[in-house]
Amino acid sequence: MKLLFPLPSIESPFRIGDRVKVDIFTLYKKPPYETIEGTVYQVRVDFPLLSTTKSDFSFECTEIKFRYGIQPDTKLFPKMKEVENELYDVPAEYLSEIE
Description:
It is built from no helices and seven strands. By secondary structure, it is an all-beta fold. The strands form two sheets. Strands 6-5-3-2-7 form a five-stranded antiparallel β-sheet, with no helix packed on it. It starts with a strand and ends with a strand. The model has no long low-confidence stretch (mean pLDDT 89).
């Protein structure tokens, strides 16, 4: 198996300590809010799980998906105290910058 990384680096759109807006409406069945604000406390790479039975298999990785742990702002969104531990693995597409 051969993994190819053609780019010298891939940067996460959000960093530890960034304040972000989280679209939780699609994350929960009955969310207490549609969106909330919080702080990024963890960044994780969601690398693809690969396996092969071919001796000459190669895979070029040009894009990596990031996932984030978010600490919700429970002062602005008090109902998030009940579910704050569930925001440890949020995909990047649910986050946006706070304007």
